[in-house]
TrEMBL record, chains A, B, C, D:
<feature type="binding site">
    <location>
        <position position="263"/>
    </location>
    <ligand>
        <name>substrate</name>
    </ligand>
</feature>
<protein>
    <recommendedName>
        <fullName>Glutaminase</fullName>
        <ecNumber>3.5.1.2</ecNumber>
    </recommendedName>
</protein>
<dbReference type="GO" id="GO:0004359">
    <property type="term" value="F:glutaminase activity"/>
</dbReference>
<keyword id="KW-0007">Acetylation</keyword>
<feature type="binding site">
    <location>
        <position position="65"/>
    </location>
    <ligand>
        <name>substrate</name>
    </ligand>
</feature>
<feature type="binding site">
    <location>
        <position position="117"/>
    </location>
    <ligand>
        <name>substrate</name>
    </ligand>
</feature>
<feature type="binding site">
    <location>
        <position position="245"/>
    </location>
    <ligand>
        <name>substrate</name>
    </ligand>
</feature>
<dbReference type="GO" id="GO:0006537">
    <property type="term" value="P:glutamate biosynthetic process"/>
</dbReference>
<dbReference type="Pfam" id="PF04960">
    <property type="entry name" value="Glutaminase"/>
</dbReference>
<comment type="similarity">
    <text>Belongs to the glutaminase family.</text>
</comment>
<dbReference type="InterPro" id="IPR012338">
    <property type="entry name" value="Beta-lactam/transpept-like"/>
</dbReference>
<feature type="binding site">
    <location>
        <position position="162"/>
    </location>
    <ligand>
        <name>substrate</name>
    </ligand>
</feature>
<feature type="binding site">
    <location>
        <position position="169"/>
    </location>
    <ligand>
        <name>substrate</name>
    </ligand>
</feature>
<comment type="subunit">
    <text>Homotetramer.</text>
</comment>
<dbReference type="InterPro" id="IPR015868">
    <property type="entry name" value="Glutaminase"/>
</dbReference>
<keyword id="KW-0378">Hydrolase</keyword>
<dbReference type="GO" id="GO:0006543">
    <property type="term" value="P:L-glutamine catabolic process"/>
</dbReference>
């Protein structure tokens, strides 16, 4: 049985932490740039309710791209997979997450998958509701249910900052709007998307969401099926094929745990049937993944044979 | 000396007109879709003031992409070529005029030339003035001077319609803004750009502008140097290397007259030292050029040996 | 426990077979074009030695791209993963398997993964030996061990035919040679590669190889570790992320079984810890995968919950 | 009348020479790497037989890409423009001269123009004759006629060296062969092409060829029409739109003289109706053009107003 003591975890964290120096904190908006490059924390949440952790686990950080997989789950529940996959593809791309070129060179201009920005914008566009506020609250309620924590909210400073600077995402939106893949007003979608990305939580919360995915959608506490098993399965598959930006292939080979990262330095992992993982380490490698977080997952995967493959 | 009688011109127009049937009128906005597919008119303006013409020469049409070369002239006058070419390149692309892919694959993300949409948006961005209104009036005044006709204005219906639907241009703008090539508010730039594209004139006016370029910037009537010879020369060069969208190379080989086309079906030609040409034929080929207009220019070029090469 | 009776399997085959009509047999070389579009056969090989099957299981077919994953296993054993991944990447591409464009646009020009042709050519290049003959025999011996059948050989007609027509693969090789990723003589490599692709076997053999991968490299009969567990794991990971050409993402979501297909219509599957699958159905979909074979795997995966995710 | 005295020319050469230091001699084969970075020579050939020159004009160098435009003229004479342009396009590309990506992304895979390597290989493929030897002799005879010098031949060392290392050109050939644009044996075509590129001459010869193009195909001495005016015109057009690699647009704007460069450092210019230019300056800029050669042409164009535009 994998790692059950915080002592073991502390040792691994100390080891993984060393490589944080060779990465770089995201600084495209001031709020992210303030993060401490040396931070590294982890929580592991087991089905029986036990949770072990290491590092500064109270610290909240914004989900950024991790929100893409949670939002996808919500939209799959609401709309069904057939409808969703008429609007976004299922293939990994090999390109950076913010790339626009394939939208032009492929026909039709459907984003290749929901984990690249173009695809994630389409998924967020599909959140049901009559207003940005209502749609955002639906996503937030879903996250409250997943984390069993109704205090979770978004960081206004980060959301505002991203809203003001996300011109590349606007370019993607207008391109998609030109091709009738997105229909709503772009500024409205940007407001919703930047709020979504700015949702804040700590590694304990994140590990709990990972656990729900690991348990095929079942709440570990109440036993309630929060999302259908198929939705959890689809999300975990995307986490393997394109969850770690254009380093997903390497991550699958070296680590083999369905995971989703964000540029704030968070990583959510779901070891099928076993446990959920939440990691925060803001120092990023050149592809935008937490450099110490990946190292830590590599140590865990090797030590406890966690690869699915 | 080339074609001096309207009779000759009428014969050529009748011949060229036949291929209008194999083209298609632009219909991405309703106002353009209303054009008559079979229309074909031409005016040739000589330095001595004489003008011969054929077809329905009173009909006004919007400049669309033809405005790109006029706007470039204005901005070159205002800013100097060094400054302008820090913001936009000088190379033909081989890609469609509205392509975004090269902005991503090339580094830096400077548009390759001012005749593709990305480059034209940068040039329009460089028009001096304190407001959209002031900047647009500067461009309009310049056109009044070039045509010696101060009644020329823009078509509100077309401008509004393009403003509402130009999502691809917005995508280009936001991409450029992300890379700090465009700084102003995108909606403001779009307002200015769509008004610029919606400026209306007839083939007589267009031929007169072509003549000013042909005469190295000199007004044929007053002898005034409206633009420096270098500016006229740069514009004519772009008209050869990238004036006819991604059919410019073929056009240079088959016809060899510096020309600029627009999706409304207009073509402006400048035969260096000799005369200016204005053409209107709204039926387009698949690359967006007036199909009968190109045929007519081919006949003219062959009959009167007008190729520069 | 999954499907244990041939009756069940026959029913599924009959159901899946229907969609063979909407596909097309590969015909770029005559030998492949002779295949019967309606064929569909399957063998499932269990660790205890039992094997169930349906369809014409004696029919031999060439491995084509399925050989890529077997060759990768051999080369990983011989050279170690560090060495191999200096020469070929680990990322899915989103492009067709024979694409050359990314070799030019990415820097360095290392093929993105070993399942696209460019990457597979690099892997074959890495097979140890002093001559094409010696290297090919090493690969064949490895396959004899995996299948426990030393009569397996290659089809000379197919190998010769592919050798004569594989100009696109030659283009890839020369491009890679220009960038010093491949060093040997291209014709020599082409001889080795086309022989490798022309290795023939039936679905029983293929299922047995799949089983060795499923059992982490252990021979089901002798218990011998034919390949290290890490090699089997790496291969299965690639089968998930890029085993089904640029339909791998969709296949992972809908079916979730590590699999590798070839344009002859073969598919090899490895259900981790459980069983190996061999399928032959030469009617292909537009991406080059067996159309009825995929349908059959989908039915199996749904009925017996075989997805890894 | 432009520059008639060698004194003027010597002054300009001395001035232009200074920038040779900031360039780099081609060194992809040893024979080219031996060139003297500081060399710069020019010859200007007038219709009346007069020729002025500066620098070491006796030095021979290989034509490299300059041969593309001469070969194009020969093939246009032999096959007619309709036939030729069924096999190669007329559009500039914006990509480097050795790029392969557009062959894949455009449909059909016809090279965009005859001045990029892919297109030049197609043109060389079209040289008539029953053997490489016979076809090469046809090209050589044509060059003897153009230069009025029957001693011109190719450099065996350079040809052999290029033949051995031209893997990228082989990649292009095989790609084109896969798409049935090239039919002959690739090694045979490579032999012919590398010999063509290795044809040697000095700047006096080169200026004389430029003059024939400038005079619409007429031999300045005998008055004989060596090539039809249309062929000369087409060649000059390509020299403007794509003669200077992917710096052609800038060159057209700044200099405006139809020109073709080669990586040996040669540039051939044709000032329509006026004179031919031959330049040799082996220090190259990053796009592969003679850095001092371009500077020299810029000085000439500005001083004597030589731009066509």
């Amino acid at each position: 049985m994998p790692c059950r003591s915080s002592d073991e975890l502390n040792t691994l964290v100390a080891k993984a932490k060393k490589c944080a120096k060779s990465g770089k904190v995201a600084d495209y908006i001031p709020a992210l740039g303030k993060a401490n490059q040396d931070d590294l924390s982890i929580a592991i949440h087991y089905p029986d309710g036990r949770c072990i952790s290491a590092g500064c686990i109270e610290k909240r950080f914004t989900l950024q791209s991790i929100s893409k997989v949670i939002c996808l789950a919500l939209v799959l529940i609401d709309r069904g997979s057939n409808y969703v996959f008429e609007h976004v593809g299922m293939e990994p791309t090999g390109d950076p997450f913010n790339s626009i070129a394939k939208l032009e060179t492929m026909s039709p201009s459907k984003p290749l998958n929901p984990m690249i920005n173009a695809g994630a914008l389409v998924v967020t566009h599909l959140i049901k509701g009559n207003s940005v506020e209502e749609r955002f609250q639906r996503l937030l309620s879903f996250i409250h249910e997943l984390t069993n924590d109704s205090t979770i909210n978004y960081c206004e400073e980060v959301a505002r900052s991203e809203f003001e600077t996300a011109h590349l995402n606007r370019a993607l939106c207008y391109f998609l709007k030109q091709h009738n893949i997105i229909e709503e007003d772009v500024e409205q979608l940007m407001e919703l998307y930047t709020k979504q990305c700015a949702i804040q939580m700590n590694v304990l919360d994140l590990a709990r969401i990972g656990l729900v995915f690991a348990l095929d959608g079942v709440d570990p506490l109440s036993g309630k099926q929060i999302m259908p098993p198929d939705v959890a399965r689809i999300c975990k598959t995307f986490m393997v094929t394109c969850g770690m930006y254009n380093a997903s292939g390497e991550f699958a080979i070296k680590i083999g745990i369905p995971s989703k990262s964000g540029v704030s330095g968070g990583i959510m992992g779901a070891v099928p049937g076993k446990f959920g993982i939440g990691i925060f380490g803001p120092s990023l490698d050149e592809k935008g993944n937490s450099i110490a977080g990946i190292k830590l997952l590599e140590l865990l995967s090797k030590n406890y044979k966690l690869s699915m493959f």
